[in-house]
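U., I forgot to send this yesterday:
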Amino acid sequence: MKYHRMPIEIEAPEQIGYDKIKYNLAESSVTDAIFQDLDLNLNDLVICYGHHVGKPELRQLIASEYSLSADQVLLTAGAATALFIISTSLLSATDHLLVVRPNYATNIETPRAIGCEISYLDLTFAQGFKPDLRKMAALIQKNTRLISITYPHNPTGTMISPEELKQIIRLAEENNCFLLVDETYRDLTFGEKLPLAATLSANVISVSSVSKAFGLPGIRLGWLICQNQELMETFLAAKEQIYICNSVVDEEIAWLFLNKKEGWLKKIQAQTASNFQLLKAWMSNNPYLEWVEPAGGVVCFPRIKSELNLVPEDFYRLLNEKYETFVGPGHWFEMDKRYMRIGFGWTDSETLHQGLKNISLALAELVS
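Result:
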């Protein structure tokens, strides 16, 4: 494994220091929960080694939502660990990965560290960030072991249709490879949600967590779901060798929280919808940016219009230093720096409004 730090982590707000950022539009999750507001009682919890697969009651709770069994759910330390387990379990230097790009950075960087061959299905603004499924099929090789997608998409917030998902699954089945679907924003889909991908085929692995959509990134609790029991045994072996089991504190908090999931989700969706309307109004009158409107999640990926003559590095410097506002620059996702990921779910409406205004002010200052 040849590890390299990713720009999205090196330049992350938690690395810079939240106290140094007044208007933080770089976050890709909803508002962080405050423990006191959760009203959870952990007084009787025994701080022991947990079940290696994960708390049985929590696994059953997750599985029951999709008419699956608990043994098809493996709890992990956040979705990031699930992604690491999947890549290191399935890929070697002689294997081939087909990954949709842009993507969550770990879905690309871990396979690179492994040294496998990688083909990229690059999404384009001109095509509305829609995947070209014919091109995807053409990129499949004899040694393709894994296809990697994420929907609602990070960083664009775009979606595919249920039929497109089924076509990608058929592609994996016909080529005897696996499909990873990163579904961390699934509960924040604006319209009808896609079916949980892992329920559709034993060739599919679904990944999610309580971080992005529920505001609990600090407890590090995620999961992967797969109907292939032989593969699940491999994933469990990987987990046990990396860190044995999850924190029982994290699992308990997640279990108590998810027992009341619908109530929390209604509040989160209401705040997200309110912020999204504010974002849409800003974009509709913005002379500097263009976007593909997101259909889910809490991020969007606008770009500075090509006719505007400016240096992107100057824009980010001005935005950060003068206007104390941060977004996720395009290079976090191996895209042109004229793109930026804007998170609209983490801040309150007032902060979001001013942060968006600051983006416009910084652009206006550079093009005037």
